[in-house]
Every structure is written in C-alpha cells, then in structure tokens.
Design brief:
By secondary structure, the protein is mainly beta. The chain folds into two domains: about 1-60 and about 165-280, Thrombin, subunit H (Beta Barrel), CATH 2.40.10; about 65-160 and about 280-285, Trypsin-like serine proteases (Thrombin, subunit H). The protein has helices spanning about 205, 280-285, and strands at about 1-5, 10, 20, 25, 55, 65-70, 80-90, 90-95, 105-110, 125-135, 145-150, 175-185, 190-200, 220-225, 240-245, 250-260, 270-275. The chain has a six-stranded antiparallel beta barrel. Strands 6-7-8-11-10-9 form a six-stranded antiparallel beta barrel. The protein has a two-stranded antiparallel ribbon with strand order 1-4. A hairpin with a 6-residue loop joins strand 2 and strand 3. The longest helix is centred in the last third of the chain and has 8 residues, at about 280-285.
Length: about 290
Amino acid sequence: MGSFMKVLFFVGAFGLGSFVFYNAGISNPSVRHRECGDRPERVGKFRKPRMIGGEDVSVDVWPWQVAVLYQPNSSVPFSQVCGGAIIDDYWIMTAASCADVQNQRKLLIRAGSSRLDVDDEFTQSLQVARIIKHELFNPVTLRYSIALFEMETPFVFNEFVYPICVPDNMAADHKLSCHITGYNAQPGGDIGVLQEANVFIMSRSLCNKPAYWNYTVSADMLCVGEYGGGVDGCETNLGGPLNCFVEIEHRYYLIGIRVKATSCGEPNRPNIYLKVYSLYYWIEREMNISFH
C-alpha cells in the first residue's frame, strides 16, 4: 500500500528546529525487501569537527553503507574513491561519476566495517561484475548522476551488512529525520572511519539563490546541510547515501545519493544529492526486480 510525502521545509526560531516534508513516495517493500532499512531512528546532534561535523559510529548502525575502492594498478593498494549503499543482495547504488572506470575489476566494494584499515569477521569485500550508469548522465550539470553496481557474488546479510529501502514516487506526507554517512579520514591521517551527521533538507528555491548554488540545482536534486556550512563529507563521500527515517514505516529509505563533492563545508554551499525516488522506475527496470 503506498504511503505518502509532500515537500515543505520549516525552520523554527533561531534555527533550533526543522521539519522536512517532500514530494516523494514510500510504498511498503515487497516480501523480498520487507526488512530493508530496519534500524531504530537516530536522533543526532553531532557537531564534532571530523566528518566535517560528524561523529564516529559503528557499522551496525548504518549496515548498508559501503566504500567503493579503486586500484589503478597492481603496484598500489586499493583506496577509497566513493561511497555507496546496498539496496539488494547483489546491488549497490552510487553516483554516476563513481562509475568512470575502464575496467570494473579495478573496483572493490567493501561492507561491514567501521574502519577501512581493519578486516574482521564481518568485513565483506566484493568484486564488481557489471556497472550500469544512467544513459542521460551529464558530468557538467550532474543531472541523472546515478549508477548501479552488480556484484559477482551476493552480500551475506547480517547485523553489519544489510540493505536500505528504495523509495518510489507515489505522493505522500511524512516527517523525515535524515543523516549523511560515509568513511572519512581522521585528522592527521588517511584512515577511513565510518561517521554520521544529522542534516536538514533545504528548499530548492533557497538553494538556487545567487548566494547559494545560483540556479544550478535541478528539479531532480536535493540540497542538504546547514545554512552556515560545517556539515559535509567531501570527496570520498561522493555517491554516499542520504539516509532518512520514515516514522510511519519505522525504517530508513535511501532518499538521496551525493552527486557533488566540491566546496566542502563552506557557508551557503549545501551538499547536492540526487533524488533517488525520481528515478525509481529506471532503477527497477535496470535491476529487473521489484521493490514493491
């Protein structure tokens, strides 16, 4: 049965509160995906200067978060180039810019880790069998910046590796609580540590003002962050998820994927995310499965 969402953004006095509603829909997942996004709501006030503005967190809180690793040649180790999210046992979603590789064998998808320098019994590292990039992707405007990576072998779902729900575009009304997540280097080092930050979704009209992104934010994009800057994930979080808890469904949905990785943490430069629900039917068609 379809549930519902309609967009409105309100910030309370002195910016102390916010409610986000927007034009997206949520349908109950199919039997195959009925447990997707099944985690308690995170009510975060994380403002430590790391993510930028994030805090370390265990991977069992965000078990769909993955790191996209790349190895240009055999003489260097794999290193993180993007983030992504598990949406099915064989599939992850990321930004189209993360799919610009000549050989998918040079990619490795890592899941189940709170730190990228630690392999434990829960870490899963999978090879990529196939890459599907949206045929209308524009690297200049960043329209249609979405890619699907199919794994050679399936993820083994457990407490630390788990899919997030994919929203459809039916109309509905829901209050959303949203976090950005990703692996970020610690001060003075380059070790990726999983972090989270609570964020707000800004109105597109505000985000497109000349002092902000100057009319470059298209209708299929979302602006995410804080008015004064300071909450961001920067380069290696390109393709990372915008995780939003839908209270009526008691689960998390992949509302957006990050498509821009410049001007990190600067005032009036909120993160830009693709609206995943705007391409719901493309996702279903390319994966040849149904999320309903």
